[in-house]
Structure formats: C-alpha cells, structure tokens
Amino acid sequence: MNTLNSKHIILGITGGIAAYKSAELTRRLRDAGADVRVVMTRAATEFVTPLTFQALSGNPVHTELLDEKAEAGMGHIQLARWADAVLIAPASANCLAKLAHGRADDLLTTLCLASEAPLALAPAMNRVMWQDPATQDNVVTLKKRGVALFGPAVGSQACGETGEGRLLDGPELVAALSSLFKSGLLQGIDVLITAGPTYEPIDPVRFIGNRSSGRMGFALARAAREAGAKVTLISGPCHLTTPDDVQRIDVETAAQMLTTVMQHIARNQIFISAAAVADYRPRVASQQKLKKQQAERIIELERTEDILAQVSQLEPRPFVVGFAAETENVERNARKKLERKALDMIAANRVGKDANAQDIGFNSEYNALQVISANGEVKLELARKTALARELIKLIAEHYSKHRQQQEHTA
Ligand code: CTP
Q1: Is 325 touching ligand 1 by the criterion CB < 6 Å?
Q2: Do the domain assignments include residue 184?
Q3: How far apart, in whole angstroms, are the C-alpha atoms of residue 341 and residue 339?
Q4: What's the predicted TM-score (pTM) here?
Q5: Domain containing 400 — which CATH number?
Q6: Quick check: CB of 110 below 6 Å from ligand 1?
Q7: pLDDT per position as a tens digit, 148-194
C-alpha cells in the first residue's frame, strides 16, 4: 500500500553501524510512495557512501551545511520547508543529545530546528549507551516536545551484546512513519470538498476560467482522509493526482459543481468549499466555434449559483467552511463573507504576488491563511499547502467537534 504517497520525507542518517540498514529503509520508503531526500552526517558517510543513497533515493544526498553548490540547489531552509516529515534512522546517542539541547552544528540538526514538519527518531546504539541516564533524560525531553521515538528494538547487537538498542526494521519504520500522518481526528466523519477552478464555456473550444490550481482542495482532501474521514472530492478541471482512498468526481462548470454537490451533500457532516467557482458565465454558450469579427466582441455574462451559500441554507445543514481569496482588506472582506454566506468558518488568504514577485495563494504551492469563526481568529503562517491543509483540517475537526457538542446540548 502506498501509505506515504507523495510524502516528502527527509531521511537523516547519523554515524552508526546500523546506517547500512538505512539503504533498505530508503527502498521501503520509496516503495510506500514517498519522495525521499537523504541527509547524512559526516560520521554516517564513514559507514555507507552518499552515492548508495543517491542511487536508492533518486535524489542528490545532502551532507554539508556550508556547501555553496548544495545550497544553490536546495538550501537547508528550502529543504526544511520541503519536508512533510523528518525521520532520523539510525539516530545515534550523540544525535539525541544534540537535538535535546537544540544544537545546530551540522546540516541535519540545523534542519531539525528549521523545520516545522513532524520529527521522528529511530535510535540505534549499544544497549548500555541507550540505558545511560543521560540518553534517557534526552529521550524524555524530546518526547515532551512531541518528537516521535520509533524503537529501539531488543535483540542481538553489532557489538556482540544482546539488549535494547537495535534499529527497527524497514517495514516497521515505514508503518510507524505512516501512522504519524493519521490523526484519527475525523474518524467516521464524511467530508465533502470542492476544489479547482470551474470552466464556463463560451463556445466548444473557449471558456472563462481562473488560475486556481486545485492544490489547496486536493491537499485538504488528503489531510481529511489521513485524519480518518471518508472524503468526496468534487473537482473542477485540474491535473492533480487524486489522493489515495478519496472518491473524486470531476466536473467542469459551476452549474455541474452545484448539481454534484447537492447530489452528495446529505450524507456529509462537513462541507469545505475550496473551489474557485466562477461568479459569472456567458449567458449563451455558442454551439459552434465563434468566428472572429472585425470589431470587438461583447460576451454577455450572467451570475452563477453560489454553491457555498446554497449549502449553508440547507436544513439540516453540514458544518460549512468557506474560503475567501482576497487581494485587499483580507480580514474585513472575509468576515463579511462569513456573515453573508452564514458560514461556520472561513479561511481567508491574500492572493497575488509576494514581495519577491512570486505567486502566493493561487497557482502556488505555498499559502498562508487567516481562519475566522464565531470563536475567534487563528493565523496559519506561510507554509506548503500540504502542511497548511493538515493544520486547517485539525482546526476544522476541533471546531466541528465543539459545534456538535453544542448541538447535542441544545437538542
Ligand atoms: N463560492 C461558491 N460558489 C460560487 C462562488 C464562490 O461556492 N459561485 C465559494 C468559494 O468556493 C469560496 C467562497 O465561496 O469558498 C468565496 O468565494 P469568492 O468568490 O471569493 O466570494 P464571493 O462571494 O464571490 O465574493 P466577492 O466576489 O465579493 O469576492
């Protein structure tokens, strides 16, 4: 099963004899669908060559913090942002100590400090080193900070002793890592999500569309599925891969999206409207290709149906989450939309170019959100849409659960 489908995994390898097992682990991670980038400490390269991991991961191996060439390719901050999770296997006693104290004296430890992605450690060391109170204190500190510890296992060790300190096997590590992405927060809940643009036909070959890539909606579908929800994704035209285990229905126009949403909404408890639905469509879509005219052509437009507003009027209605893509007065406009469309939550973002003229929001892998509800406001800082989607799903799950409790209370 592709339990890590399209996940960006940084595999950190520290110096220890178990480093040879990480070669097999790299294969297993890729078999599970992960995109793997290997970061090795200098000591690790004494045990296995970076070339081995380059061949197995299909990506260049990162070893130095201050390597101009590597930084020009993918700098350590970019690498930190790229990661959906960082797994260090094997993690030496020294690595645990450095992380527990927030040291950043090589690429791997610097990355761990710079990344917001979940961190998992698979320790491997001599059993006496593992049991040493200093190591155990470090483990307690790291666990308290939310770092996941995978193993170690008990068994015969490379040093000839038998005890606790063996690296977990590849399949065990892949399973443990996969479970990091599964929160169970939406277990048993049905979630309907719209995503992507809509295309409103002018004639058989032309349409009015927009720059929405669909990434945010697809990332939400994946995150909701990982949180245990049963997900239906109604998507406008886009070229993204359907997340595992998600039912996807393709539509083209706003009208088709509305019909499809209404066909499915009844059995869903949460509706997330991430699609960039066209607000207008040509009043008449020509059956034949329009020929050019001498002068200008005027295409008359009419309003499309507001899917989100219609869903929030349903009785009974699901928990309704809308999006607001704004180029100015983000918060004020979003609050107005929250009220006007009677939403439970709205996720607002600024679209356009950032200070470096890079696209944000639309047509970009990055986004930042301001999430507004009756209970207040939460800011989700600029991050990859996959990471942001997970945060947003967590928030939606929390609010939905409160909302349900209130409903049960008043019933
Ligand atoms: N939306 C929808 N159906 C439409 C238009 C929008 O379901 N016909 C949903 C979007 O999916 C999004 C929210 O409404 O969740 C906000 O869309 P937006 O187009 O920004 O808001 P509008 O209400 O159209 O307001 P304005 O044009 O003033 O920005």
Answers
A1: yes
A2: no
A3: 6
A4: 0.76
A5: 3.40.50.10300
A6: no
A7: 999 999 988 787 888 899 999 999 999 999 988 887 899 999 999 99
